[in-house]
Amino acid sequence: MQWPLTVRGYADGAVVRTAEGRARRGGLIGSGLRDGSPAPVIAEIVERLESRPDAHRLMESNTHTGRIVVRIPH
Q1: Residue 62's pLDDT is what?
Q2: How far is CA 66 from CA 15, 48, 60, in A?
Q3: The whole model's pTM is what?
Q4: Average pLDDT of each block of 10 consecutive residues along the chain (74 residues)?
Q5: What pLDDT score does 73 carry?
Q6: Phi, psi of 49, rounded to the nearest 5 degrees
Q7: Is the dihedral of CA 63, 67, 57, 10 positive or negative?
Q8: Cβ neighbours of residue 6 under 8 Å, at least 6 residues apart?
Q9: Residue in 20, 64, 22, 18 with CA at minimum distance from that of residue 45
Q10: What burial letters (b/e) apply to 27-60, b meaning 16+ CB within 10 Å?
Q11: DSSP state, 70?
Q12: What is the pLDDT of residue 3?
């Protein structure tokens, strides 16, 4: 790869060390899946296909948090 790459992760090792922690995490994830609350974070919605260069500039700037969505009309 020729470009700078930033990878951000989440480690929950401290939470899953105990059975109680694993049960709490499982309950939280399960309840979110049941009620549909986990939703992607949307940083920007690009409405026109012609605006793809703007979406690429935003992605390359690495200043956004979340997904960049390009809506393509059907």
Answers
A1: 86
A2: 24, 19, 13
A3: 0.50
A4: 64 79 85 82 89 90 89 81
A5: 78
A6: -60, -30
A7: positive
A8: 62
A9: 64
A10: eeeeeeeeeeeeeeeeeeebeeeeeeeebeeeee
A11: E
A12: 66
Provide DSSP, 19-55: HHHHHHHHHHHHHHHHHT---PPEEEEE-SGGGHHHH
Amino acid at 58: L
The first and second tokens of residue 17, run together, are 């060390």
Residues 6+ apart with CB under 8 A from 43: 58, 64, 65, 66, 67, 68
pLDDT at 49: 83
Predicted pLDDT at 2: 60
Strand 42-46 and strand 67-70: the pairing is parallel
